[in-house]
Write a structure and sequence with these properties.
homodimer, about 280 residues, alpha/beta, Rossmann fold, six-stranded mixed β-sheet, 11 helices
Chain lengths: ~280, ~280
């Protein structure tokens, strides 16, 4: 059984830069890439191990960084993705930041200020659980900022992500595309399953009421901010295992292209030059 | 084959608060607690899985935090410990901070300023790779601060750690006790093994020249700062697997005592109160 290649997954999920983008055409289930759930699980396991090895070299090399942006409606599986895709990666060299409503300190600056402060250092993989995209998603839907300000943000975000890319940070953006029906099931699970109750927030149901507005905001954000330097990937997320497997495939492939390696001092170190007695 | 209990390991490794402490009496190898390396590896694997589960609850509960302080000479295995003990723990909810020489900004404040800024939030396990103890170790040995200032620090550190403990953060401090001979072997490996070369720093050999001074500084720090609220554990570290297994045992046991649990809303949530259609 052959796993789908990095190119297969990438080409299937990417929102092509510079093209118009129709979110309603994107599936929330995607049985095609993997034979079945078992194949997806096997693939995920191998990729998680490979990501761990690549990250070790990235950390040693300290010349490049990877920023993984995760966006999605409640229950789309942002935390679950982090848990499974990086299950085998050492916590050393992973920086995770979950963005919530801005604090007073954060709100007193421009919206990219707290984002910039959280970008990964060279050698690290940074993971954003939500991100600056909230400033063109929930902020737009709930009208937390003036229309003109939001309108400017798409270009500002592209410029910001270009700065990161040009400075050695690869940017990967995943929209976890969960279906409306599947979200309803998962929200209800947060009440029926005791170990999920802590995640339940009645306000999530308010966002659910605004589903079409959110989808429209996502569509615009993806269309305007899927760039050649920082493309958006739309990940069918009704199946958790397949979702994780697809994301792992893209992260592994990207890291392989970045090709981090163990640094070798030049001139080479010689044992006889040092006294270890 | 029965694994050593939490109490066995704790009692064996603790530096008893309020007692005089003789580091030279503490072994760097410790074959007694585990039958053999295989038993240590099995025990470590189980404990790493248990730590992952406990951490999930800690994260959901958000009422307590755990701070793990790792100190030791170069090559004692601080990174390796983090990698193996938290191998199965989700990076969500783990905060790692490695302290190096202070930056200009940090040096312009008191030595606990940057430490305080890095303490774990409730729900998190924070890991310090080096810590405020450097300010009574390398700073003392290399005379980077006046003697009287350093002399005050032991009490200041105890007061600081008391504040953390009283505010819901359990503090565990591990001195990774590696032997002089074993360190020499490991430093040489950093030259002979290509994937370790990036870790080699000729200055580590300078610290090695000051070994007796460092041991004396460790002895004083442990004696004066092993408190009932934040005890020091001296971990024989010439064997990597046993070292990791002992530390995992203590961390697991401590988390079990902290007894985090899935929060249950009061009054209980009812499915029929919400509309998931």
């Amino acid at each position: 059984m052959s796993h789908p290649s990095f190119a297969d997954v990438r080409d299937e999920l990417i929102a092509k830069p510079g093209k118009s983008f129709d979110l309603s055409k994107r599936p929330t289930r995607h049985p095609k890439l993997f034979e079945d759930k078992k194949e997806a699980a096997t693939c995920l396991k191998r990729d998680a191990a490979a990501i761990d090895e690549l990250q070790d070299k990235l950390y040693a090399e300290r010349g490049q960084a990877l920023l993984v942006v995760l966006q999605g409606m409640d229950c789309a599986g942002k935390s679950g993705t982090i848990r499974k895709v990086f299950a085998l990666t050492s916590p050393l060299g992973i920086t995770i930041r979950a963005f919530k409503a801005p604090t007073e300190q954060e709100a007193a600056r421009d919206y990219l200020w707290r984002i910039h402060g959280a970008v990964p250092a060279k050698g690290h993989i940074g993971i954003f659980d939500r991100s600056h995209y909230e400033d063109v998603l929930v902020v737009k839907v709930r009208k937390f900022a003036p229309k003109e300000a939001i309108e400017r943000r798409y270009d500002e975000i592209n410029a910001f992500e270009k700065l990161l890319t040009d400075s050695g940070t690869r940017v990967l953006k995943f929209m976890l595309n969960v279906g409306y029906e599947e979200q309803g099931i998962r929200l209800a699970e947060r009440i029926s399953e005791p170990h999920k109750r802590w995640k339940f927030n009645p306000r999530d149901l308010e966002d659910r009421q605004l589903w079409p507005d959110f989808m429209k905001a996502y569509e615009t954000a993806v269309e305007r901010c899927s760039t050649t330097h920082a493309p958006w990937y739309i990940v069918p997320s009704d199946s958790r295992t397949r979702r994780n497997a697809m994301i792992a495939r893209i992260i592994r492939g990207t890291l392989e292209n970045m090709a981090p390696d163990w640094p070798q001092p030049d001139p080479p170190l010689k044992l006889e030059d040092y006294d270890f007695s």
